[in-house]
Specification:
Elements: H1 6-21, E1 28-33, H2 41-54, E2 56-58, E3 72-78, H3 82-95, E4 99-103, H4 119-122, H5 129-135, E5 140-144, H6 157-175, E6 181-183, H7 191-199, E7 204-206, E8 212-213, E9 221-222, E10 225-226, H8 233-240, H9 247-258
Parallel strand pairs: 1-3, 1-10, 2-3, 3-4, 4-5, 6-7, 7-9
Antiparallel strand pairs: 1-8
Helix pairs in contact: 2-3, 6-7
């Protein structure tokens, strides 16, 4: 979900000011990236330096207390692009920051061929099975992004269940470890798609709708905030503090007014 634009940024800035005034408790914000191309490697490194210095970075499925003195942030990557292995993974390892990479199992080792808006993403290749195995570590997990990078809400319950189950089995065979987290391609989901993912044995699933996640969050579905290595420092700080968490409410209101 695109979070650029002066209006959204202004609302997020106002939300941030209000949160500080009201002393809103810290929460977990899950960030998601796609590509980290070579010319944006330094920008990504600066963002990771900010996270390392000012937040507690945890895995996206964190279930403990999030009400500490510092905000909590989780780092995720959709699509498992080779630029992530080349540029992001070494930077994360240097700073000992945990992250999760969501891979479309049917595209491993191939040039990405699904619909994409970003020119950077259109030039990307998905990691091969060997590359996925190589990036695994105690601080880097692999999750599923379906088989074919499909819109899970559009394919119907049976196909959604197949996409979830088969991709999980394939990635577990590749990685040699349990795969129990799923990120919805395009953020396309509905109740049937979430149920299909849950039925395939996943513990957590992730959307592309921003959310501040508090302690005791038991639902399978968690929201995430889109971030780019090219984001300005101001915009990145707003995102890492969960300042776009108002967007789900705005989206629901927009749909209600159209109904």
């Amino acid at each position: 979900m695109a979070l650029h634009g002066p209006l959204k940024t202004s609302i997020a800035t106002a939300w941030m000011a209000g949160a500080r005034l009201l002393r809103v408790r810290p929460a977990l914000t899950i960030l998601y990236y796609h590509a980290v191309p070579d010319h944006l490697r330094d920008g990504f490194a600066r963002q990771m330096d900010i996270l390392a210095a000012e937040t507690d970075v945890v895995f996206a499925d964190f279930e403990g207390d999030v009400g500490g003195d510092r905000p909590m942030v989780a780092i995720t990557f959709d699509d498992a692009f080779t630029s992530v292995a080349r540029n992001a993974v070494p930077i994360l390892a240097e700073r000992r920051l945990p992250a999760t990479v969501f891979a479309p199992s049917g595209w491993l080792g191939q040039k990405a061929g699904w619909a994409m808006e970003s020119l950077h993403d259109q030039a990307e290749t998905v990691m091969s099975a060997d590359q996925l195995r190589a990036i695994q570590s105690p601080l880097l997990r692999i999750g599923s992004h379906s088989i074919d990078h499909v819109q899970m809400a559009a394919v119907g319950p049976e196909e959604a269940a197949r996409q979830a189950a088969v991709s999980r089995s394939a990635l577990e065979e590749v990685c040699g470890q349990k795969v129990d987290e799923f990120a919805f391609p395009y953020g396309s989901l509905n109740d049937a798609a979430v149920q299909a993912v849950h039925g395939a044995g996943y513990r957590r699933a992730y959307s592309v709708m921003p959310e501040r996640i508090g302690s005791g969050h038991a639902a399978i579905l968690r929201g995430r905030t889109a971030v780019e290595p090219s984001d300005t420092e101001r915009l990145f700080r707003l995102k890492m503090h969960g300042a776009f968490c108002w967007m789900p409410l705005a989206s629901r209101l927009k749909h209600a007014l159209r109904a």
